[in-house]
Write a structure and sequence with these properties.
Nucleotidyltransferase, domain 5, Actin, Chain A, domain 4, 5-stranded mixed sheet, 18 strands, 38% helix
Length: 344
């Protein structure tokens, strides 16, 4: 199916919002809501460069591909690591959305991008969207899109603070008058937590596991703060000494210890953002608190740890994974209102 969708160049949809994330790409269609949520993964045949699968189909191949086929994530640490593959992936997702929809005009597309995106990466995003048939392409920084998606009044002079913990980056921003007044971005997110878990099991249990298993451990028993109920789970992998598959039991206290370093980096980034926040806006944050978005905010106890470290109220959005794409949808609904937050 994906081969058929990559052919042609017309995307017949009125307005489309995209959250181009390190871990997942989400697409919003005006009038319908979120219509696509797929992993940002592409399977490529090494010798020919031929695309073997995109999205969920490709993610299922992670750690399972035969020799000669590689499942790659074209976005790494919140930036575009492979421009060409990213363009193919974005074009495929946009065409997937348009396959069953027929509208009259070529669409406007709003893409949520990291705040530190380079001009080369901007060109890649623009060319991908135009190749899929977009008439106009706008970009908005992910912290701003997340704040709009949560429903914060970004255009007012009141200070609003957002922490967006994604797969590759954590972006912290204080927003007022439709601008980022104070911002901090670090290349630490869910991927670094997964890598820490892989490294811990290799060093302490001589067990080699893949990214999908590390992610499952993080989701099921990972925590950033001691919880009332400590959990454990069986982890299957390959013994590095004997080379034979085996199972070990890992508890949540061990996982919490091994992800401590990247978690502390996130806490440090939040502190730095607060230190450079103007006093009047800091006073607003004391009253309003901090809003957490992104998949990383679902790590158990992270909000409690930040509350303890900062002394400020911490609010986790009910659907943190979709905040950025919901924000692009709100922007599409009222582009004149949000024109100042957009770049082309």
């Amino acid at each position: 199916m994906w081969k058929r969708l990559l052919r042609g160049s017309f995307l017949p949809i009125n307005d489309v919002g995209v959250d181009l994330g390190t871990a997942n790409t989400l697409v919003y269609v005006a009038g319908e809501g979120i219509v696509l949520n797929e992993p940002s993964v592409v399977a490529v045949e090494k010798s020919t460069g031929r695309i073997m699968g995109i999205g969920l189909e490709a993610k299922r191949m992670l750690g399972r591909t035969p020799q000669g086929v590689e499942a790659v994530r074209p976005l790494k640490d919140g930036v575009i690591a492979d421009v060409d593959v990213t363009e193919i992936m974005l074009r495929y997702f946009l065409k997937t959305v348009s396959a069953d929809r027929v509208f009259k005009v070529r669409p406007r597309v709003v893409v949520g991008v990291p705040s530190g995106i380079t001009e080369l990466e901007r060109r890649a995003v623009r060319s991908s969207a135009h190749a899929a048939g977009a008439k106009e392409v706008y970009m908005v920084s992910e912290p701003m899109a997340a704040a709009i998606g949560v429903g914060l009044p970004v255009e007012t002079p009141t200070g609003n603070m957002v922490i967006d913990v994604g797969g590759g980056t954590t972006e912290i921003a204080v927003i007022a008058l439709s601008g980022l007044v104070a911002e901090t971005s670090i290349r630490v997110g869910g991927d670094e937590l997964d890598e820490a878990i892989v490294s811990f099991l290799r060093k302490n249990y001589n067990l080699l596991i893949g990214e999908p298993t590390a992610e499952a451990i993080k989701i099921q028993i990972g925590s950033a703060y001691p919880t009332e109920e400590e959990r454990d789970m069986g982890v299957k992998g390959r013994d590095l000494v004997s080379g034979i598959p085996k199972t070990v039991r890992v508890n949540s206290a061990e996982v919490r210890e091994c992800i401590l370093e990247p978690i502390q980096q996130i806490v440090g980034a939040v502190r730095r953002a607060l230190e450079i926040t103007p006093p009047e806006l800091a006073a607003d944050i004391v009253d309003r608190g901090i809003v957490m978005t992104g998949g990383g905010s679902l790590i158990r106890g992270l909000d409690m740890l930040l509350r303890e470290e900062t002394g400020l109220p911490i609010h986790v959005d009910e659907e943190p994974l979709t905040c950025v794409v919901r924000g692009t949808g709100r922007i599409l609904d009222d582009i004149p209102r949000y024109r100042s937050v957009l770049t082309t």
